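Risk register update: the risk of archive-format incompatibility is retired. Evidence:
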Amino acid sequence: MKTQKKISVLLVSVVMILVIIFTIYQYIRSRETMLYQKSLLQSDKLVIEKVLEFKCQGFLKPTKDNSAWDGMVDFTKTKDSVWAKENLDAVLITFDMSFLGAYDVEGNLIYAAYDSVSDGLFLEKRQIAGFFFHDKVIHTFMLFQGHLYEIFGAAIVPTSDIFYHTSAQGYLVAAKQWNDHYISELEKTTGFKILMAEDENGLKQMTERDSENIIHPVTNQQGKVLRYIQFSRNSMFTNELKKLDSVKLPATILILICFLLFFFFTSRWLNKPLKMITKSLANDDLKPISFLLEQKGEFGDISRLIKQFHLQKNDLLIENREKKEATEKYRALLRAQPDMMFILDRSGNFLDYYAADIKMLLKAPEGFLGQNLSGIFSPDLVQKLMKSLKDIEYGKTIKPIEYEMEVNHVVYSFEARLTAIDQERILAIVRDITERRVIEAKLISALEKARESDRLKSAFLANMSHEIRTPMNGILGFSELLNDETLSAEDRQKYTGIINSSGRQLLALINDILDISKLDYNQMAIDAHQFSLNRLLDSILISSEKEKSRLGKKHIGLELVKNLEDAQSYLETDELKLMQILQNLIGNALKYTTKGFIKFGYTVKENHLLFFVEDSGKGISGEKLEIIFERFRQEEESNSRTYGGAGLGLAISKGLINLLGGSIWVKSEVKKGSTFFFTLPFNQQLEPVPVNPVFIPAGNSNDFTGKIILIAEDILENFELMEAMLIRLHPTLIHAENGLKALEIVASGKSIDLIIMDIRMPVMDGYEATREIRKLKPDIPIIALTAHAFEEDKIRCTDAGCNDFISKPINKEKLIRILRKFLL
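Archived output:
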């Protein structure tokens, strides 16, 4: 029989198979109906769950709404039954509850409202305690006198605490009895008949095909099953399923018979000749197909073609050997240059390649030769390359294509140059330009940094000029106005206050610059000691209130939040630097807030404290959040900025926090305010250390009559200033123009009660003069006076023999306080 006839027979067989497949398809459709029934059952289960959840929310939500209510908090304290009857009875009736009761924090019932069916329902004290032991909102079930009750409850908290963060002031508990009326409503809502029993055996059992039967256990909060509920209704698909069963077996037998016939004839007419042809091709041997060479038909033609191919292949092997030798010569030349080369056709298929370093290839050669660009590169790069492959003209080169690609987990930059070899083939020369790109990026980055540095330098100089000249203008201007003898006492006092304020502003700027310098050179010393954090925050609150009043911002509310009791709030760190950090942050909040609130304080987080300063001010835009902690940087950096300042406060705060072992960050939204957070290490087991009481001289008198004070100061104006400060305290002042003169006065035997020693003086400085005086008078108090403010300067003064330290500009109150310490 010819192959054509054999194929005709096979086609008839295929038709028969199609008929069988159609029959099977009909059978599968019927099976899908049954699966749909199961899917519908799952959907019904979901509907039942949603209905039960919806019913639950109808009672749980009003319970939560009425528990988070200031009125309920007051009721737990007043126990006003009239108020309760007016409000709680209304809630009971409105939401069709069976029971609504209010309990105090110990679980004692304060007030209860019942419907006509559940009168006498009682929840014991231990039940309330058990319900709310772990949760502040509960949903559970309980049995009472043989009836099933669904219980809803929530802790009583203030209206503002919708998330139940505060301690419970009591508990509000509601109950709904699952009576016949309530179950009837569920039946109407779900469309199912509902039965209840104490165990599953007590429920009506139905087969899966006769009904949709859903068993739902009801458990209490401890997971104990109280009841079983059965939702059931008649199935809509029973008849269809029975029909499917009747055709299942015959269809299966028919399919098996058809497949057996198909495999038998296929093996006899097709498989055997194909095996011979496959064996011949695999072994490169003509013997297996020798009996087919003389046959007519398609298999005979294929066998003769194989014989012809075998002869041509031998000729090609000889030709390829010659081409390979020529190719090796060209490859030797290619190895002398570093670029990679690829040959592609205009459809984007790789035909050949060359690469001196095969590690630079995205894939091994066998992974891309013969493959298309689209299976190897990203869609964007493929689009660029395909456009160039189609547009390039024979003998011409197009503009290089630059791209980036990850090779062996490293991202490289490449440049591809394309040129047409002929009408169909394209040569792509690919060069690694990663190093060039890196150099270019560094040059661009250096240029941008130089521009940014120049801009910041100009902005900083302009800002510093403004911040220094502004207070200097007030000092010089109003000082000149004080010379006017016609000024009234009120104006003179006003101008003096402005001069003092401007001086403090200028001094604060100088201190900030000094602090930045100390942080830059790691010269900021840490004086860690134990102190009461709560007491420190109380003092900061008082000083912030004064600053708020001074700024005229009476409509801003200040609030302090403390997370620990006073006895537990002892912290071991640098108290003054923590105060400086908080005052910087609160000062910024006062500056940028016109109304609303400023809240600051701390919470305990494991082994550290989380401090925060929150305000309702102008807020900070997202793109500025990364720069505000940089020195001399502010959100506004233009000449028309609304708020002043040198932009050092946050940079200093960040540096101090890092020194203290913490970190700082900010969250902000424009027009909604900002919250600054920072952490500090905290040992919760720290025991308070008793603090020795500070010695305070008896009496309030500052009269230094009879006391002789030697002032070593080379600047006459500074001596005259201290003389003016102390003139009303009646001490006897002696002026020494330098350290040598002060030493001579002490050596002369003159009775001196105290020495104020300027450190930087001509002839002999304060350090040397102090050391020499100590040899003559080891017990005389010596107070160092210097314009230096670094910690090492204070240590150097102490090492030289000074008893205390006062820095310029001189604070009158501090000067008098030190004099009282040593003279009274």
